[in-house]
Amino acid sequence: MLVAIPRGAVVLTALRYLEVVGFDVDFTGLLEAWAVIAVLILYAVIGRVCDDRGPQTVLLWSAAAYGTLWSIFSIGLPPMIAVLIFVVPIYPMLLVSNDALMAKFTNEEERNRGIGMASLVAFLGQSIGILAGFFALGYLISLGKTDIVAYEMFYRANVPLWILAISFTFWLAKRIDASENVIDAEISE
């Protein structure tokens, strides 16, 4: 959920922000199409990466890369650089590594429910982020801020959430690495 809240607040509102800074609606639609195609292509590959490197390692590095890139985006970049950050397809790595961890640490009877609950938490976090954006942007605009300034202020306020999400993911990955043999033994029983 810690990655999902700022994702909802920043990433899922980024296309509208790009329109506010001057990109055409058709272009932002093309960016969204690219993101979906990248997800589909990468889903086929990332499972093998999780098998080779371990899902906790993939989760850690993808959360760090995702949070870092979107924190840079949040600072307020020239529009073309902001677009480049939008098209870097890191999100599928977060999804697949999260599902792989749920599959790894649940037995066969719990697996589907575990993956479903993980998705529920992620979507709940994204919803919280979007809702926070709705209220914060409305408030900032009511104070007389321009749309661009309101977006950039709100995005910058999310940088600490990205840092917290990356830090927690690092802690979680280390904890999983330290206890992996015990958990594997418990699951195999």
TrEMBL record:
This chain belongs to the protein called MFS transporter
Listed GO MF terms: transmembrane transporter activity
Top-level taxon of the source organism: Archaea
- InterPro entries given for it? MFS, MFS_trans_sf
Q: Which residues cross the membrane?
A: 27-46, 58-75, 81-103, 115-141, 153-173
User: Which SUPFAM superfamilies does the UniProt entry name for this protein?
Assistant: MFS general substrate transporter (SSF103473)
Give the UniProt keywords, A-Z: Membrane, Transmembrane, Transmembrane helix
Name the source organism: uncultured marine group II/III euryarchaeote KM3_31_G09
One Pfam annotation, family name? MFS_1
